[in-house]
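Hello Y.,

Per our agreement to keep a running log of every chain we model this quarter, I'm adding this entry. I've kept the format consistent with earlier entries: sequence first, then predicted structure.
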Amino acid sequence: MYTRMAIVAKLAVCVVIAGGTSGGLLVIRQHRIDAANQMSQTHRRLLQHEERSWKLRVAIHERLRQDRVAALANALETETGEKLVPLLLEDCDLVELQAARGTTSSVAVSPEHRDTPPTIRDTP
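Predicted structure for the entry above:
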C-alpha cells in the first residue's frame, strides 16, 4: 500500500512539474510575442516620423527657394533701410548668443566683429 501511495505521489509531482514547466514556457513565449509586437510598433512609428521629417524638409526647401529668400531680403532691406550682405560660413564662426529672455541661438559672426560684444535690439 505504501508503494502504491508513493507511486501516486511521484506521478502527481511529475504532473505538477510538467504543468509548471509548460506554464513557464507559455509565459516565455508570450513575452517573445509581446517584444516582437513592440518592435514592430516602434519600427512603424520610426517610419512615420521619418516620412514626416522628409515632408517637413520638402516644405522648408520650398519655402527657402533662392528667389523667395531674395524677395524676403529685398523686402527687409526696404523696410529697415539697411543693406544686407550675405556672410560666407568659411569666414565666420558660430557663437552662442544669450538673449535677454534666456534663450540661446547660434549666429554667424564675421572675423572683424568677433571681439565686439553683441547688441541686442528689442523687437516689438
